[in-house]
Specification:
alpha/beta; Metallo-beta-lactamase, Chain A; seven-stranded mixed sheet; five-stranded mixed sheet; 11 helices; 41% helix; 17% strand; disordered N terminus; binds zinc ion
Length: 324
Amino acid sequence: MPTRSAFPVATRLIAIVVMGWLAFASRTAPACSQDKDPTVEQLAKDPALFLQSAGKRLKWEEPADPARILGPIYFVGTKGLGVFLITGTEGHVLIYTGMPNSGPLIEKSIRQLGFKPGDVKLILTGHAHIDHVGGHAHLKQVCGARIAMMREEQELFESGGKLDFHYSSYKEFLFEPAEVDVVFNDEDEIKLGDISIKALLTPGHTRGSTSYVTKVTDSGKSYTVVFPDGTGINPGYHLSDKPSYPGIEANYRRTLKTLESLQPDVWLAPHNEAYGLNAKLERVAKEGAKAWLDLAGYQKWVATRRAAFEATLAAERASHSKTD
Ligand SMILES: [Zn+2]
Ligand SMILES: [Zn+2]
């Protein structure tokens, strides 16, 4: 069958994309592991396996020590997932909340740092997938915080994942929904006391994926910090050939352009391996704040995201031309 004969070509190219995503996992997999790595085809066909495999390998649900990052920004996530607390004069902002069972771990980390969960006033996320909003409902309740979200992501979040264009039929991807209290739009400034965070609509991975830009001061110096999102192309997503949703290809293009235009001093992200949390934490003891300065690392990462996008498109074109 033409479709079948074209599949290996496409698969090889898609493999570049997916294996980039899972590269960190392969390097850190225990040598004694009995598990066989799932193939790219398996991951694309079986989203539940993809979620389980990525979560386990990247340690999404393993507790991690909280840490000061820079100025008022603290890490309160798990070994694999970035969750950040930005402290301020009139309460704190939490960005991302990890998996559903991350909620209590985040609360504990906030306390361990000497802050009160009850002082968290706003909860943000990069996009409404279970690994970044899993703890939203729990933390909204225990902190008494308001959930703020990009307009284009509100419906997906409030559906608990049931409106996801790719994962809606997989119960493993559903999360506890909650009401969005504050809706913002592209380029809005989210303000709380002395905290000001600019929200940028960076769609693609979901329709309302959001990146954030903020300025912080550490030892009298000012730094621009970016939390990028929206570039991930998951196994099974289609961009040009039977697109996963209308406009997905244009969305990724727009997002890559937006992220390429940013010049952060420091970047943090919802997946720790992306921005190299562990390596930077190790350097902090010797180098202090300097360890977080990583414009080159950010630009390199954005370049890999563009390469992954182009590789996916090329794979789709190769697959399509063989089936014409
Ligand atoms: Zn996602
Ligand atoms: Zn994710």
